[in-house]
Amino acid sequence: MVQSDNENTPVFQLRIYEVSSEKRSQFHERFEKHALRIMQRYDFRPVVLWESESVSNFEFIYILEWPNVETMERQWKAFLADSEWVEIKRKMADAIGEPVQRVTSRVLEGVKYSPAFHPFAIFHGGTDSGGGAEPVAGEERS
Questions:
Q1: Is residue 18 within 8 Å of residue 101, measured between CB atoms?
Q2: Is the pLDDT of residue 32 over 70?
Q3: What is the pLDDT of residue 73?
Q4: What number of CA atoms fall less than 13 Å from residue 48's CA on the CB side?
Q5: With contact defined as beta carbons under 8 Å apart, do 11 and 108 qualify?
């Protein structure tokens, strides 16, 4: 299990759903109208959502932010057991079959030099604030 060095540092979860191309619109409708709404009950924090074409299907990709791994595991368990969500999935499976063919999930932790944690640091020679880094071309040292 991945665990952050700092209890105050969030963890991010990468989710990739391989979805049947012919069920793309139904999947999006279910995710937008139902999954996101029910996820709010369990304090899911979506950061960004994308889609990408694959050879035979399309992929729906998103990132969630969690305060820690334990919360992520507990909230996923609660979401997946939610009676409304279970019924929505059952109805769709009965009507057209389950659109999601495969799920990949990974816990991501930032590295200390990530621009997400130190914006523009990589463009200025690191995370130190000692002023030793050279300015980016076209910028003047302040």
A1: yes
A2: yes
A3: 97
A4: 4
A5: yes
